[in-house]
Amino acid sequence: MKKIAVALAVASVAATATVALAGPQAGTGINGSWHDINAAAGYTGDSLGRTCVFCHTPHNARTTDSLVPLWNHKDSTLPVMAPYAWVSPMNKSIGIVADPLIGPSRLCMACHDGSTAVDSHGSAGSFPTGGTKMTASYTDALGKQTNRFITDLTVTHPIGFLWDDAETARNNGQDKAEIITKNHGFIKDASKINPATWITDTDSATRLAAGMTSKKIQDTLYGGYMTCATCHDVHNSVNPGPVAGSGHSYNYFLYAQEEGSAICLSCHVK
Questions:
Q1: What is the C-alpha separation between 8 and 226, in angstroms, rounded?
Q2: Of 270, 65, 114, 252, nearest to 260 (Cα)?
Q3: pTM (2 decimals)?
Q4: What are the pLDDT digits (tens) for 228-260?
Q5: What is the distance between the alpha carbons of residues 42 and 126, in angstroms, rounded to a whole number?
Q6: Which of 19, 47, 84, 219 is the most exposed place for a label (fewest CB within 10 A)?
Q7: Domain limits, the chain
């Protein structure tokens, strides 16, 4: 089913049949996930039940950007966004490029800017095309209403910087590394994380016990740059669900679990 989910579907009879099977659970494919616009309430679904067509098309794709992977969606209406501003003096040498939305981050903003229609299609046999923007919010774990879209990058984790620059700035001249080297995988099993014994070392026994995924950090970088896709698996393919038996329910398309701050500790040593 994952092969169906990731493929650039032309006819989607098979894809439509899998929607009920995939569900919003992590790692079950894009069909039926939160990135399946057909399954999302309030948006105009594709008349042929195609999932991939909201972003991709095998023919007559847009050619406005060399990055675009057979792109079939409108550009973000917010082409310029203020980047994150480093606070720590040690971070000042980590430069964010003029366009912090470099790479796939700009593609994410084609829906997540809160201004561009989520259910818009390209011209490749797409009918109907919608005009609904992402305005919905959700209640987070602290009971706060939080938007599903972003208009200000200054309040999010920094993106648009070279990983090697961050590693050099944070690791050189220190007894213990603060940034994991990019050849490491993401933490595989958050249930093995014990904050009381978490050693600030990339090769600590605790980290090794938690295991690492075959998906490495360097596999998620865009030309060495950190982007939205460095943390998020947009196709809902290899991202993990909550720790079994934890009682938690979430799917943020992350490459590591939330429990024990596994997603944070996959890159940061604290």
A1: 25
A2: 270
A3: 0.84
A4: 999 999 999 999 999 999 888 889 999 999 998
A5: 18
A6: 47
A7: 163-265
